[in-house]
Design a protein that fits this description.
Blueprint: H1 8-34, H2 50-85, H3 92-97, H4 114-120, H5 144-165, H6 169-173, H7 182-213, H8 219-272, H9 274-291, H10 298-347, H11 349-352, H12 364-374, H13 387-390
Helix pairs in contact: 1-2, 1-7, 2-8, 2-10, 5-8, 7-8, 8-9, 8-10, 9-10
């Protein structure tokens, strides 16, 4: 089989792009390890999320580290290929072919006209875009000030409540919900940035691959294209998974903040209503006890005392009902957070269900592979793209 190979400069230019994408992979792994793994403020009920958040970030970091090593290796192979072709002997092509895996049967080759067409529009080039990874603004603890106010107000009733019920209002109603709920919004932004920059790296890989594919032909070139298809599709899959995580944390922020605001509103009502009434009733009982029963009309005094005690327990009963309603909301919040933790745990398992993807792609996977072959850049930014389905492409990343 004949072949066409570009000069050393072309191989070196493509290698430089892949080397920079390898460095980008390292930066993305570091961002996942630090920013996406930030669990500060995930305490009490939010503590259910600490381990899943750290686990997901660790998975992402590991995959980006794999990408970094793999693309650095591709850069080395490209430089070696260019140097070997430059020797222009009969064994050169056979030697270069051995540097790239055989083309798998499922590999959807680029249409013959796609490369030159896109090349003329300037999309096939070695002008890779630089990534930008800035952590989001530090998470704002949006309920800290409110909880301080609530805690101070509840503290005024703490003694009465403990005397009448043996329980602590603060332990029941405040301590479980203390935490930095703004961390959810922070993680949404962090994973959104990780996704955008992973897509950018995938686009850089695609542009450089297409540029080389329009100048290099033969078995070795086909092996290179198939290998790079796995890398840029797998990198795009990492962007998809990060997009799924961003959506998950965004949904969590919306749902949880609504419930927390309901709890805070209920606490305000409890303080201004039932607890205020209970405090007045208790004060009346204590006043009667302090004054004692007078000799003027002992029967009336006894009736007044009984009435005051009755009013106190009536007010206590009303306060208990409100407290139970707030505890119901807190339990609802706990269930929501546990559900979010389960969702975060399941994100990485999107990939685990497609271990046979490379060996025997079918159905949705074939459609994704076809889309990947037909579109060079901005693949994941089309309106029809589904990151949940696209995330399975991580299984295409070459291992080792």
């Amino acid at each position: 089989m004949g072949f066409t190979a570009p000069g050393v400069a072309e191989f070196d230019a493509c290698a430089a792009v892949m080397g920079r994408q390898g460095a980008n992979g390292t930066a993305l792994a570091q961002f996942a390890t630090t920013t996406c793994a930030n669990t500060q403020g995930l305490e009490n009920l939010l503590g259910f999320l600490a381990e899943p958040v750290a686990s997901l970030a660790g998975f992402m970091a590991g995959e980006f580290s794999l990408t970094a090593r793999g693309l650095a290796g591709i850069a080395d192979r490209l430089r070696a290929s260019g140097a070997r072709y430059a020797q222009a002997d009969a064994a050169a092509d056979a030697d270069v072919r051995r540097r790239y895996p055989a083309v798998p049967g499922w590999f959807p080759e680029l249409p013959a006209s796609a490369g030159p067409t896109l090349d003329r529009t300037g999309q096939a080039n070695y002008d890779d875009a630089a990534i930008s990874l800035d952590p989001p603004p530090e998470a704002q603890d949006l309920i800290a000030a409110k909880l301080r106010d609530v805690s101070g107000a509840l503290g005024a009733f703490e003694g009465i409540w403990q005397y009448l019920t043996g329980e602590s209002l603060l332990a029941l109603l405040v301590e479980p919900i203390v935490g930095n709920y703004g961390r959810l919004e922070y993680l949404q932004q962090a994973y959104g940035s990780l996704s955008d920059q992973a897509y950018l790296v995938a686009d850089n890989e695609r542009r450089a691959t297409l540029r080389m594919s329009t100048r290099w032909d033969g078995e070795a070139a086909a092996g290179f294209e198939a290998t790079m298809f796995r890398w840029h599709q797998g990198t795009g899959g990492l962007g998809d998974l990060a997009a799924v995580a961003a959506q998950t944390f965004g949904d969590a922020w919306s749902v949880v903040s609504e419930t927390v605001n309901l709890i805070l509103g209920a606490l305000d009502s409890l303080i201004a209503g039932a607890l205020a009434s209970l405090a007045k009733a208790v004060a009346k009982v204590l006043l009667i006890e302090a004054a004692g029963l007078g000799p003027e009309d002992p029967v009336a005094d006894v009736i007044a005392a009984i009435s005051a005690v009755h009013d106190m327990y009536k007010a206590l009963k009303a306060a208990v009902l409100v407290v139970k309603a707030i505890i119901f909301l807190i339990n609802k919040l706990a269930g929501q957070i546990q559900g979010i933790a389960d969702r975060v745990h399941r994100i990485a398992t999107i990939v685990s269900t497609v271990h046979d993807l490379v060996a025997d792609p079918s159905g949705t996977t074939k459609d994704l592979l076809s889309q990947g072959a037909q579109t060079t850049v901005d693949l994941e930014h089309t309106t029809a793209w589904d990151p949940v389905k696209g995330a399975v492409r991580i299984a295409l990343l070459p291992q080792g």
